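Summary for the lay section of the report: proteins are chains of building blocks that fold into shapes. Here we show the chain for EGFL6 protein and then a coded description of the shape we predicted for it.
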Amino acid sequence: AICRHGCKYGECTGPNKCKCFPGFTGKSCNQDLNECGLKPRPCEHRCMNTHGSYKCYCLNGYMLIDGTCTSSRSCAIVNCQYGCEEVKGEIQCLCPSGGLQLGPNGRTCIDIDECSTGQAVCSYNRRCVNTFGSYYCKCQLGYELKYISSRYDCVDVNECVTNTHRCNLHAECLNTEGSFKCKCKQGYRGNGFDCA
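The coded shape description reads as follows.
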């Protein structure tokens, strides 16, 4: 079986047919499936979509016990943003994702910027993009994600061919790894962006 466009988060099961891993969708399994929008809804109260998965959390005044939201007077008193749990007789507010941490008030959740704390792991040719509660790895500027020799990789964008350069009308465009250069044509002077 050959899948011309590849199966990013799945496997090729027939000619151009992908079987997606759980949590992913699309012709080449390259899109995250928003489980929170599925019917029946996967969570009893609230749902937070994550890359390839989802997290459930309870409304204020409820406690997550064995995957179900149970009404709790003590939880309602604490006034947690995303529900709470009881640990050794003490009520603790919960955050629905590892990329979130309890704020100074101990009730609301604030985002952890994995990109600036160095917790994010991206390969050398990718840059980190922080999201609320998580992060993802994107190709460096001047590169694009392409399916080459049975895997996805970040490849150089040829700005001269795609016409995305800003060279002067009287300049030549020269492609470089991740960027481009402009050189004024013979008989013209300048930096390539301005030629006279």
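Put simply, here is one thing we learned. Helices lie at 73-78, 114-117, 159-162.
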